[in-house]
């Protein structure tokens, strides 16, 4: 991986990340392709949208179709036909979100498959082995994520385990690279600690001292805490992260969340929000959210967003999309998802331009002004 900082505007950063499969300009939003596909869209759609990196999930791909099958097709790139970069999550979040079926211990996470109830055990090494098969460009390590709020004891245990697993993971990855495995794959550690400043500082300092990591993520946020706490935690944590490596905030979030956290020095984001909201009838626009289900749009000839040049807005009216949604036509899922992802990717391009021009404050003010109309 090559990483360069192209410009800053206050704490906001415009950077370039080069992997084996694409050149990624930040700030970047990574559409979520949990099963090796962004829901309702294919590789051609993602290329048309200009996506340089999407996120796949180790937990889900391990269970189905199995990483060995993906490997036979040349990894995720050959299997999905998306030629640009993939980042794969480790499965730690799924262990958290499916907590009724999983149990962490000092060495890993035991869980039951949500598909057939079979038992499996993830370790720091095993999740990397799966990701080697997937051939993702960026591999996330196994971490111990906890819900918020939580006890001091449980958060302290989370940090202890996450650091222990990070050391095991980076040592194993360096050994594998020496043996010719995962040579072009990169590995990120995940900072934990809830919203407690001392815990976040402790986790960040422990992990960032492991200098062989290619980048660092802030995990364990957007899991139930107030937005203000999330923003404060990110602002506090980034000061302990290296300047010369990518910073990734996991699982976040709304357009407002992206803007607020870019301002706090974050480079990379992912979230299911644009596609999930599209499927449920909520579309993001320059002027805020729009509920396409409303009867108000049954005869509306205008596009979703007059300021948008996506395929959906250039070709279809709110009335047509309202009809498709009400008729439960699958085409709506594709058209709605195209628009929402286009909106997110375009917002990141606009944010980058503002940083390059060193007018971040003006850009942010304009962003909120349009949404308050």
TrEMBL record:
Cofactor(s) required for function per UniProt: Zn(2+)
tRNA-guanine(15) transglycosylase-like domain span: 11-372
InterPro entries found in the cross-reference section: TGT, TGT-like_sf, tRNA_ribo_trans-like
GO cellular component: cytosol
Binding-site residues for Zn(2+), renumbered to this chain: 308, 310, 313, 339
E.C. designation(s): 2.4.2.29
Description of how the protein assembles with itself and partners: Homodimer. Within each dimer, one monomer is responsible for RNA recognition and catalysis, while the other monomer binds to the replacement base PreQ1.
Protein name: Queuine tRNA-ribosyltransferase
Species, as recorded: Arcobacter caeni
Gene designation per UniProt: tgt
């Amino acid at each position: 991986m090559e990483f360069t900082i192209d410009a800053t505007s206050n704490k906001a950063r415009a950077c370039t990340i080069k992997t084996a499969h694409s050149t990624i300009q930040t700030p970047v939003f990574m559409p979520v392709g949990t099963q090796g596909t962004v829901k309702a869209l294919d590789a051609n759609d993602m290329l048309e949208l200009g996506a340089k990196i999407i996120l796949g999930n180790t937990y889900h791909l391990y269970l189905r179709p199995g990483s060995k099958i993906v490997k036979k097709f040349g990894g995720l790139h050959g299997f999905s036909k998306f030629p640009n970069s993939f980042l794969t999550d480790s499965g730690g979040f799924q262990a958290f979100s499916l907590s009724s079926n999983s149990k962490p211990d000092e060495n890993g996470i035991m869980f039951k498959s949500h598909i057939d109830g079979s038992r499996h055990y993830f370790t720091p090494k095993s999740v990397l082995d799966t990701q080697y098969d997937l051939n993702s460009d960026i591999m996330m390590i196994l971490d111990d994520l906890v819900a918020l709020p939580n006890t001091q004891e449980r958060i302290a245990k989370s940090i202890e385990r996450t650091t222990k697993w990070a050391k095991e993971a980076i040592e194993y990855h360096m050994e594998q690279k020496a043996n010719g495995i995962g040579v072009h794959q990169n590995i990120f550690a995940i900072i934990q600690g809830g919203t407690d400043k001392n815990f976040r500082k402790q986790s960040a300092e422990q992990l960032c001292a492991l200098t062989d990591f290619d980048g660092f993520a802030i995990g364990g946020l957007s899991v139930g805490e107030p937005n203000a706490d999330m923003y404060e935690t990110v602002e506090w944590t980034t000061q302990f992260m290296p300047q010369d490596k990518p910073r990734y905030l996991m699982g976040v979030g709304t357009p407002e969340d992206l803007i607020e956290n870019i301002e706090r020095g974050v480079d990379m984001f992912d979230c299911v929000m644009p596609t999930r909201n599209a499927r449920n009838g909520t579309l993001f626009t320059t002027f805020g959210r729009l509920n396409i289900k409303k009867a108000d749009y049954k005869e509306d000839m205008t596009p979703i967003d007059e300021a948008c040049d996506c395929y959906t807005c250039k070709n279809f009216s709110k009335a047509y999309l309202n009809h498709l949604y009400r008729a439960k036509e699958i085409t709506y899922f594709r058209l709605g998802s195209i628009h929402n992802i286009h909106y997110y990717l375009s917002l990141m391009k606009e944010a980058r331009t503002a940083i390059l021009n060193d007018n971040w404050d003006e850009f942010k003010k304009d962003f909120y002004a349009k949404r308050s109309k």
